[in-house]
Amino acid sequence: MMSAKERKIGQTLQRFLDWAHAQGWRYDMTPVYLAHFERFLQHQGVQALDQVDTALLVDYQRQLLASRSTATVNGYLSSLRALWRYLLREELVGEDVTKGVPCLPQDYFIPHLYRPEELSLIERAMRVEIGQVHTPARRFCRRTRQTAFGLLRDCGLRVSEACRLDVEDYDRRARSLRIERTKFLKTRVIPLPRSTCARLDQYLAHRQRMATAQSDPQALFLSTYSRRLCRSALEAPFKELLCELWFYRPRHRQGRTVFGSTNLHALRHSYAVRTLERWQRQGCDVDHLLPLLSGYMGHVNVSYTATYLHLTPTLRQLANERLGELVLPQLDHRGLSRKDEQEE
Predict the structure, then answer these.
(1) Cβ neighbours of residue 293 under 8 Å, at least 6 residues apart?
(2) pTM (2 decimals)?
(3) Structural domains in the chain, sorted by start
């Protein structure tokens, strides 16, 4: 049975979570991390957070490493650092004991980047799936997943952002989409491609016909039970489809390199790289346009967008061609000048 002091630790952790949520935190794993840390403290006999020292946290980090990846362990410690900043702010502890805990070197992460032919294959398979069912409700459910997939592919949204969209967030006349209260309560309005608007218009027409009294009147994407579509209702069928296509690749590790799986979040990485490739082909000033890409993807800093930009063979070839266009004329000009000087 928990003592009064142990219950006080749990209450403090809950107050921190409530405060973080009010500040706009969208990290679903933070409550899990803190619940695990609370159990660790109970096992160690710690009855107050001000009894925790750096040595105890280093031991906690060591125990986590025995069964978890370095990225996951850093996630645990990141939540604890945020917790201690909160405790200092509320004057519940006297020092930040997390400063003495080293941050583990991150594994090198390589996401799956969907090729155009892979995206076309997935799109065709989704259309076939819609035609294979005959009941209107199931057909509408698959059409919902297809439309959400197209939005993630064409606009690089987070999966959670697509699930939280309301019907009124889509402006048909302005061809724009309002994405409200994402990470850290940010809101942005993004323009949509014409093809994406056409798919949304077609989907909304189906949605209007299929809506019932029990349907959520606000949610843009509805599930089988006429409620707001949740993340798992998108990710699980997508994984099943990729498995049927013999296309699914699970997350795996080779040494210190982690290769991401073929999941929905990889569409966001693919969108960023595909945009960069298009700008390179068009001869645009990429450095000047990167802040626009950051704003479109919902980042407040270009450094966050850099996480999604990966050097691909296509980008390398385009960069070499661009470099050749800039440098070779200058080299030719210098060569001609030297030849003229020798002739004189």
Answers:
(1) 272, 275, 276, 305
(2) 0.74
(3) 4-106 (1.10.150.130), 107-310 (1.10.443.10)
